[in-house]
Each structure stands twice: as structure tokens, then as C-alpha cells.
Write a structure and sequence with these properties.
5% helix, 131 residues, 9 strands, mainly beta, 1 helix, 52% strand
Length: 131
């Protein structure tokens, strides 16, 4: 990690891969990751941690499977949402988005439980930010 400020627009411009988060910094035992997203991710759940989303650009949809049934949360640019631990969810973005995610270091992008991971989704604990 750098001891210098990170410009998020510059960080996002440094890669093109979708659903492949880059770690921009760490806060205590948490990663702050940015990602470009488009289309659908995979249904998954993080059993032991919440997952925080901030939409930097575009619009993100998060489908949730909750005890009361399924619902979808729509997050326009500038919105935040936290998916509670253990909740099955599937992020998607029909027109593309840039997001910031905050979760414990080492958390797998496809969670602890997930359906089959398609080729366009990177199952990772986050990649180092180049440059």
C-alpha cells in the first residue's frame, strides 16, 4: 500500500477487467476495493461479514434473498448499501458501474457460498493496484 493519496478515478482507469476488484488501501483489517462492473455477478453469501457498497459511477442493482422473499435494491451514483452477513445477494449493472467495496482483508469476491462462477467473474480476494 502506498503512503500517498489515491485518486479513485486514476485507480479505476488503470484496469479494464470487470468484476475484478483492486485494493486501493487498507483500514485496520479491512480492504477498500474498487471495481468496474457490468452484467450480472453470481448469487453468493458472506457468512461472517457484512459487505459495504458505494456506487462511484453508474447504477448498481443488488438482488437479495431475504426471509421475507427476494427484492432488488437500486443504487444510483453516490449511494451506499450494506448487505448483512449471511444474506444471499447478486450484484448487477445493466449499463455498467464503478463501485467501492469495503470488507475484511482476505474476503473472497464470490463469498463463502456461491453458485457456479461464470468466466466473466473473478473469484479473488482482490488484486494489488498497479502503479
Amino acid at each position: 500500500m502506498s503512503n500517498e493519496p489515491t485518486v479513485l478515478a486514476t485507480a479505476l482507469a488503470s484496469f479494464d477487467d470487470l468484476w475484478s476488484p483492486r485494493i486501493v488501501t487498507r483500514v485496520n483489517d479491512y480492504d477498500v476495493r474498487v471495481a468496474k462492473v457490468a452484467g450480472e455477478h453470481v448469487w453468493h453469501a458472506h457468512d461472517d461479514t457484512d459487505e459495504f457498497f458505494l456506487v462511484l459511477d453508474g447504477e448498481l442493482h443488488i438482488a437479495l434473498r431475504e426471509p421475507a422473499g427476494e427484492r432488488t435494491v437500486l443504487l444510483p451514483r453516490g449511494s451506499v448499501f450494506t448487505v448483512p452477513r449471511g444474506t444471499e445477494h447478486r450484484p448487477s449493472s445493466p449499463s455498467g458501474a464503478s463501485i467501492l467495496v469495503f470488507e475484511p482483508t482476505g474476503t473472497l469476491s464470490v463469498g463463502d457460498r456461491h453458485e457456479e462462477v461464470p468466466d466473466h467473474v473473478d473469484a479473488t480476494t482482490g488484486h494489488a493496484l498497479d502503479g
